[in-house]
């Protein structure tokens, strides 16, 4: 059963949590809270390594146990700290990031479940439900407030946009959390010299946790020190850590991705640029580490954020190329882009911090141990949640022209499926619309004529934005009475899609792989108990519609079954009697798993001759669904999207 907290106003400052933790979270935190301990010299740091290696993920962490506590204990305090996942100081209790809602422009701060704990993803889900949100600010957790905003246009890229806030959901500390999915055009920056960030050859360190599977070779997926304005001002004016498949200085070993140092005008794998000893890090989560004394020496390390320690890929002299001895850092901060706003690469960011001074190896090992103890899990290479691809003729995907940057009027087309393409992942919403990158699949001019092309447009609820997945594989637009179509069955990249008379041909077979909500009585949605973890026999019920809930997105299969979470809507015991309840069960082709949408709004089961029904027309959350004699009453109105 799905429970969501009441929305609370955003906090006025950073000392008050934006939401009250659930009772279960509070009990968990209390049960697992470690005793506070004083931290001193290197002995304390070594103790932290051992303690963190033995720790379990917790809702709130012990005093002194988080990355910025570890760095401070070693004499290299954090001067900037950013994460959408968790607190990086044990004493932090403020917002992690801000989201902006597409439907009305409203904003909400997403904070923590508990001090020193993990992000309150439920607050984001409820605030953004039924629409899309972008991450419009990433808060700095230090007292310097060097918050990151979508960056301005620069020497090598236009104005950045904020990341889709729900594009990548993973788990950390046993909690659902969101990362920052960076596509071309997404990037964040602190413009100017951030307070306390080292400049002009002073020593510094930086680490980040990022994806080793959602990476590219273009420039630049960076986090760290950059120019104070978004322009290339010369060698040595940056000092940011990067993970990419960029072999800037050949030869390189393998195909990457590699942890690299972006010190401007070069992605350095170590030494003077080329470093065949850098073998790369390709795990789903990578801890990427860079430190630089600003004068003669730098080091690059990488590790699996889910297990083990760090590998040192380089520890030695700074490049002898002009400009790097000494360094000339300017103190700007970038995330997901380059110093001159080169914003053409991709990646996924979860957490990171910048420190003043040259960190000790022991401190970096302790930070890695703490990252491992956070218990990151989940795929990082594809957008996830209820959105999914829409596959069409020739096995191609429904795609938006212009690579993840679609504006109103952008063409919708067929293209080779690309797992990382944000604009190929669509949400099928409860009102029947299909949305991606903040806009909806739309018929040009709300037209109804054969051959009218489709495009991307602001979601507005118009009839030209409703598409119903039908069992024959077509996507039907009720207003026009026509289906989504590829002209003459073309399958080439760039084929512009349109509407046409429904004919059941291969040109009109489009499968919504993310499923769609089934709207029921009282405006509720058909839902599986147990929050996205349904097993055989799980109750199927009514619940408030939640656009983020995977188990509210159902696939209407060609054999008439309705599936979610890898199982099918099933009549208990394959029964046929009035009042027999429905449940989730392994898909087996039985008659109790066949459901036909009828013109009167009912979902009809042919074997029993009865319809899906809410007992006595109840609409409360948790109402268990059943079959009953078909009567077309409000209790039997279930609309497939």
Could you explain how this protein is built, in words?
57% of the residues are buried. The protein is mainly beta and 641 residues long. The two termini are 23 Å apart. The protein is built from five helices and 43 strands. It has three domains: 23-34 and 57-373, Jelly Rolls (Sandwich); 390-512, Trefoil (Trefoil (Acidic Fibroblast Growth Factor, subunit A)); 518-640, Trefoil (Trefoil (Acidic Fibroblast Growth Factor, subunit A)). The chain is elongated. The model is unreliable at 1-58 (pLDDT under 50). Strands 1, 8, 10, 15, 16, 17 and 19 form a seven-stranded antiparallel beta sheet that branches. A seven-stranded antiparallel beta sheet has the order 5-9-18-11-12-13-14, with no helix packed on it. A four-stranded antiparallel beta sheet has the order 23-24-25-26, with no helix packed on it. A hairpin with a 4-residue loop joins strand 28 and strand 29.
């Amino acid at each position: 059963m799905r429970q969501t907290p009441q929305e609370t106003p955003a906090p006025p400052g950073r000392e008050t949590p934006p939401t009250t933790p659930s009772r279960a979270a509070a009990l968990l935190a209390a049960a697992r809270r470690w005793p506070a301990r004083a931290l001193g010299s290197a002995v304390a740091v070594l103790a932290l390594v051992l303690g963190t290696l033995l720790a379990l993920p917790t809702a709130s962490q012990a005093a002194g146990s988080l990355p910025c506590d570890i760095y401070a204990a070693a004499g290299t305090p954090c001067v900037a700290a950013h994460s959408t996942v968790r607190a990086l100081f044990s004493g932090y209790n403020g917002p992690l990031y801000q989201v902006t809602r597409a439907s009305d422009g409203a904003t909400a701060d997403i904070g923590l479940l508990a001090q020193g704990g993990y992000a309150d993803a439920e607050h984001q889900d409820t605030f953004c439900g039924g629409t899309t949100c972008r991450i419009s600010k990433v808060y700095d957790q230090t007292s310097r407030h060097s918050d990151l905003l979508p960056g301005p246009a620069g020497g090598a890229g236009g104005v950045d946009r904020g990341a889709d806030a729900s594009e990548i959901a993973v788990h950390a500390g046993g909690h659902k959390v969101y990362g920052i999915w960076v596509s071309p055009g997404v990037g964040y920056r602190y413009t100017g010299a951030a307070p306390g960030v080292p400049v002009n050859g002073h020593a510094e360190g930086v680490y980040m946790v990022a994806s080793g599977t959602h990476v590219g070779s273009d420039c630049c997926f960076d986090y760290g020190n950059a120019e104070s304005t978004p322009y290339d001002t010369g060698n040595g004016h940056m000092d940011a850590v990067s993970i990419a498949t960029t072999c800037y200085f050949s030869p390189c070993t393998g195909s990457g991705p590699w942890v690299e140092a972006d010190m401007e005008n070069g992605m350095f794998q170590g030494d003077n640029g080329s470093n065949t000893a850098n073998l790369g890090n390709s795990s789903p989560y990578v801890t990427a580490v860079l430190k630089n004394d600003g004068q003669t020496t730098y080091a690059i390390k990488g590790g699996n954020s889910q297990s083990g320690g760090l590998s040192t890929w380089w520890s030695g002299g700074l490049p002898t190329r002009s400009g790097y001895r000494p360094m000339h850092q300017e103190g700007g901060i970038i995330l997901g882009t380059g110093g001159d706003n080169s914003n053409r690469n991709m990646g996924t960011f979860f957490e990171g911090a910048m420190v003043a001074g040259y960190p000790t190896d022991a401190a970096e090992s302790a930070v890695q141990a703490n990252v491992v103890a956070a218990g990151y899990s989940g795929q990082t290479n594809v957008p996830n949640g209820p959105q999914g691809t829409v596959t069409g003729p020739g096995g191609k995907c429904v795609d938006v022209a212009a690579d993840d940057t679609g504006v109103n009027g952008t063409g919708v087309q067929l293209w080779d499926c690309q797992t990382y393409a944000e604009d190929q992942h669509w949400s099928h919403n409860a009102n029947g619309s299909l949305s991606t990158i903040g806009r909806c699949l739309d018929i040009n001019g709300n037209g109804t004529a054969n051959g009218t092309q489709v495009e991307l447009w602001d979601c507005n609820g118009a009839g030209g934005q409703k598409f119903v997945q039908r069992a024959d594989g077509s996507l039907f637009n009720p207003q026009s009475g026509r289906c989504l179509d590829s002209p003459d069955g073309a399958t080439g990249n760039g084929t512009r899609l349109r509407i046409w008379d429904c004919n059941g041909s291969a040109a009109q077979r489009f499968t919504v792989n993310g499923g769609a909500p089934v709207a029921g009585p009282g405006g509720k949605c058909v839902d599986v108990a147990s929050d996205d973890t349904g097993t055989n026999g799980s109750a199927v019920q009514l619940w408030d519609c939640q656009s983020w809930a995977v188990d509210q997105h159902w696939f209407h299969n060609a054999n008439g079954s309705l599936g979610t979470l890898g199982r099918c809507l099933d009549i208990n015991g394959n029964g046929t009697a009035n009042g027999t309840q429905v449940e989730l069960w392994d898909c087996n082709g039985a008659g109790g798993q066949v459901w036909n949408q009828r013109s009167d709004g009912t979902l009809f089961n042919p074997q029993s001759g009865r319809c899906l029904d809410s007992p006595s027309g109840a609409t409360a959350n948790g109402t268990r669904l059943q079959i009953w004699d078909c009567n077309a009453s409000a209790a039997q109105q279930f609309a497939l999207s």
